Amino acid sequence: MLKVYLHGNFSISKIVIGCMRMHEFGLNLQQRTDFVEWCIDQGITTFDHADIYGGNHHNEALFGEVLQMKPELREKIEIITKCSICVPNDENPNIKTRYFNTDRDYIFKQVNNSLEKLQCEYIDLLLIHMHDLLVNPKELNGTLKQLKDEGKVKYFGLSNHNPLEFDTLQKYVDVKFVTHQFMLHPLGIENYKNGTMTHCLKEGIHPMFWSPLAGGRIFNPKNAFEENMKNVLESIRQELHLENIDEVIYKWLLKHSSDPVIVLGTGNRERIMRALNSIGGIQMTREQWYKILTEAGYELW
């Protein structure tokens, strides 16, 4: 299984398990533990969380129960989590409106909550989940440095920022942002259009793609655009002699020279294996790759 080195000796697996829907997997504790161990056996060692994931922000705790049951798994995996999104729900009864928060006290509170829920002493990679328009970059620098100095977080990155937002924060922050996580799939190529993918190349960043299958819309198109894309993917699937169109998408995402990482938000083992198998083997041509890009709405000239 390929590893992607984000900074120095720090690496994550090429395929990451996204835990946003873990509460929907319908797994009891033993089944969750078996699933995590199965992923590790396949070479998938990285699990992606956020403080807001799950019913009333409970998914980190679901994963933490696995580590409490088998604490020896902690040193075999990399844990990613995120913070900055505040949403109204039972966990936050005083919040009435969705907003973003990167204040020092808030980030410290969320990191400590995540550590408690995850039943671990440190987070491998903390991402600022969304760009806070009220961010104080100098204060954020002090916050991240203290988290690192205290051993609570080893590495840092950003999620869902545009290139200007990324560069502005990095200018003020002494710790290096080692990755950038954002959405990319054949029905949503905004991060090709706005220069985010080129920015990753410029900065030597391995991007992480969430929602690679557009939340399942790839398989169940709702309009003419989505139906056309499914037909394009099916045509290329036949040309490449692959079994499923999700394999076409994985190969399309992985072809970029930034050496990206795919975040899979599924507990379906067959789909996970297809993603793993897509890393090697037959590769799509440049013409096939550009066919998907242009049908997705990218104008070459």
Automatic annotation (TrEMBL):
One of its GO terms (cellular component) is cytosol. It comes from the Bacteria. Residues 14-291 form the NADP-dependent oxidoreductase domain. InterPro entries: AKR_Detox_Biosynth, NAD(P)_OxRdtase_dom_sf, NADP_OxRdtase_dom. Pfam families: Aldo_ket_red. This is NADP-dependent oxidoreductase domain-containing protein. The lineage of its organism: Bacteria, Bacillati, Bacillota, Bacilli, Bacillales.
